Structure formats: C-alpha cells, structure tokens
TrEMBL record, chain A:
<dbReference type="InterPro" id="IPR036065">
    <property type="entry name" value="BolA-like_sf"/>
</dbReference>
<dbReference type="GO" id="GO:0005739">
    <property type="term" value="C:mitochondrion"/>
</dbReference>
<feature type="region of interest" description="Disordered">
    <location>
        <begin position="117"/>
        <end position="150"/>
    </location>
</feature>
<dbReference type="GO" id="GO:1990229">
    <property type="term" value="C:iron-sulfur cluster assembly complex"/>
</dbReference>
<dbReference type="InterPro" id="IPR002634">
    <property type="entry name" value="BolA"/>
</dbReference>
<comment type="similarity">
    <text>Belongs to the BolA/IbaG family.</text>
</comment>
<comment type="function">
    <text>Acts as a mitochondrial iron-sulfur (Fe-S) cluster assembly factor that facilitates (Fe-S) cluster insertion into a subset of mitochondrial proteins. Probably acts together with the monothiol glutaredoxin GLRX5. May protect cells against oxidative stress.</text>
</comment>
<feature type="compositionally biased region" description="Basic and acidic residues">
    <location>
        <begin position="136"/>
        <end position="150"/>
    </location>
</feature>
<dbReference type="InterPro" id="IPR050961">
    <property type="entry name" value="BolA/IbaG_stress_morph_reg"/>
</dbReference>
UniProtKB/TrEMBL annotation, chain B:
<keyword id="KW-0408">Iron</keyword>
<keyword id="KW-0479">Metal-binding</keyword>
<dbReference type="GO" id="GO:0030097">
    <property type="term" value="P:hemopoiesis"/>
</dbReference>
<dbReference type="GO" id="GO:0046872">
    <property type="term" value="F:metal ion binding"/>
</dbReference>
<dbReference type="GO" id="GO:0051537">
    <property type="term" value="F:2 iron, 2 sulfur cluster binding"/>
</dbReference>
<dbReference type="GO" id="GO:0016226">
    <property type="term" value="P:iron-sulfur cluster assembly"/>
</dbReference>
<keyword id="KW-0411">Iron-sulfur</keyword>
<feature type="domain" description="Glutaredoxin">
    <location>
        <begin position="49"/>
        <end position="114"/>
    </location>
</feature>
<dbReference type="InterPro" id="IPR033658">
    <property type="entry name" value="GRX_PICOT-like"/>
</dbReference>
Length: 150, 150
C-alpha cells in the first residue's frame, strides 16, 4: 500500500484562479433514497462485464460537494472479461460501460478492475486519498451535480 | 481562450498558450478546438513524463492528483511537465477528448497514455512503474534505495 500517499494531507487553498464565476451550491439537499446514479452504475457494470464480484461505493461524502450528492464513486469489478487485458484496457471497458454517467453527473470514478484470480489472492478494496477541496467552487462539478439532480 | 499562468516550480514546464483566429465565432471555436487537440499531441511528446492534473505539484487541488505527484516524488521523478486543468475549462475538456479518458489526473510516458491515479498506484505497487521508468531512461529512486540497503 502507499500509506504516505493515502494519508498525505496538505493545506487546502481556495485562492486558485477560475475562468468562470463561482456558482452557489444549493444550501441543503436531502439524499435521494433511491440512489439512482449508484443503481445505474451497478446495473450497467453487471450487464456489460458480468462480474463475479462488484462493489459500488458512493464516496461523494468524502469530497467538497453537498450532502446527498452522487458525484464521486469507487468501483471494484472482478470479472473474467479482464483476463489478459492491461490495466488501461480494463479501465476503458469500465469507462465505456459508464460513459453516460461520466459525461453527465459523475465527476470522479476510482476503479479497481481485477480478474477472479487476482481478487482471490488479494481481496482488498483500495482507499481513496483524502480530498483536497478541488470540487469546491469547481464549475464543472456544479454542472454535474445539477445534471444529477435533474 | 484565456492564457494560462506560467508556473515556476522546478518540476513544471510552460503551459498551453492560445492561438489567435480571425474567423466567425463557430469557426473560431472549431479551429481552436482542433488546434488544441494538435497542441496536446505535441505537449504529450515534448517531455518524457507529462501529467495533466488539478492544481500544481507544489499545490495539488485534488487528492487523486496529489497521489500521482506523491508517487512520482517517491520514485525521484521531479523533472516532468505538469499542466493544471483547473486554469481553463476548455483545456480541461480538450484533455479528456484527446485521451478519450473521462477523469483527471492523466499521466503520459513518452507520448503514450498510461492512465490515471488508480493505474499509476497499481503500477507502483506491483513494480511495473520502476520498469516503465527504466524504459524512459529514468532510474527510480526506489531502485537506488533498494540497492543501498543490500
């Protein structure tokens, strides 16, 4: 593992330049209990990659986005379809399956793509690094959150 | 397109500068977009290691981008080109189109797309990163550290 990387915390700075004016997040939003984006991700990955094991984690609460967002996800996909494929090809398969979500409401997608054998020898879920606040005031993220709400 | 701020940290290089166009708005937009794709093609080949990230190596604005910076730092890779996609939204989208990859950060080795944070981390963990750096003529600091400890 990479404890230094995963534990690294740096001061969060909000003084970076932006090319567009800041948009305001809605001050409060109740989480959508149906979790439509998570369900869609799960359905598409299941249909297209026929995984032996699948985990879909909404990590939006770990980032600078409003409560209830479905913008940041981590997926663990264990599929024999990954046999013989490089990491990049595996990730491209996952990206392709989720291209609609990635072009609309999902801002970040962490991927672990393993073969059944790899999963068997190391059945562990990686941890995402700490957020550094980049989503706060990010116009692209705001557009994606809006797309998710609509 | 707004011009980007030139960074001065030792591991950063010059960033993308816009081209001028004198045609209609739509033609100028298409021309600029096509120019950007061409420029990106040159940018990824200009340096052995190229990183498109949020923020800078000195001040990453995203945990995943920071992870890439930390991994490269662990391997002693300080001399690489880094481009901050937060400075320009058109540039940010252009990078995703160029790589056909929906998320940031993105890493290139000798003009070839390697992947994002997840892939770089796995390459670091399984030893592939040391080998890939060797192919670039870069001797990983971890390799040197391993020799010294023997």
């Amino acid at each position: 593992m990479l404890p230094t990387v995963l534990r690294c915390l740096r001061p969060v700075s909000t003084s970076f330049a932006l090319s567009r004016p800041l948009a305001h997040f809605r001050p409060h939003m109740d989480p959508d209990p149906s979790r439509p984006v998570e369900k869609s991700i799960r359905t598409k990955l299941t249909d297209q990659l026929r995984p032996e094991h699948l985990e879909v984690h909404n990590e939006s609460h770990m980032h600078a986005v409003p409560p209830g967002s479905e913008s940041h996800f981590r997926v663990l996909v264990v599929s024999s379809q990954f046999e013989g494929l490089s990491l990049i090809k595996r990730h491209r398969l996952v990206n392709e399956a989720l291209k609609e979500e990635l072009s609309s409401c999902v801002h970040a997608l962490a991927i672990q793509a393993k073969t059944p054998e790899q999963w068997g020898s190391n059945p562990s879920l990686a941890k995402s690094p700490p957020c550094m606040g980049g989503s706060r005031g990010d116009h692209t993220v705001e557009e994606k959150l809006k797309a998710g709400r609509e | 397109m707004n011009s980007l701020i030139r960074t001065t940290a030792r591991c950063l290089r010059s960033v993308y500068m816009p081209r001028q166009a004198v045609w209609s708005t739509s033609a100028r937009f298409l021309c600029a977009a096509a120019d950007l794709q061409k420029d990106l093609g040159e940018m990824v080949k200009k340096d052995k290691v190229v990183v498109f990230m949020k923020g800078t190596p000195a001040q990453p604005m995203c945990g995943f981008s920071n992870a890439v910076v930390q991994i490269l730092r662990m391997h002693g890779v300080d001399d690489y080109a880094s481009y901050n996609v937060l400075e320009d939204s058109e540039f940010r989208e252009g990078v995703k189109v160029f790589s056909n990859w929906p998320t940031i950060p993105q890493v290139y080795f000798s003009g070839e797309f390697v992947g994002g944070c997840d892939i770089l981390l796995q390459m670091h963990q399984n030893g592939d990163l040391v080998e890939e750096l060797k192919k670039l003529g870069i001797s990983s600091a971890l390799l040197e550290a391993g020799k010294e400890s023997k």
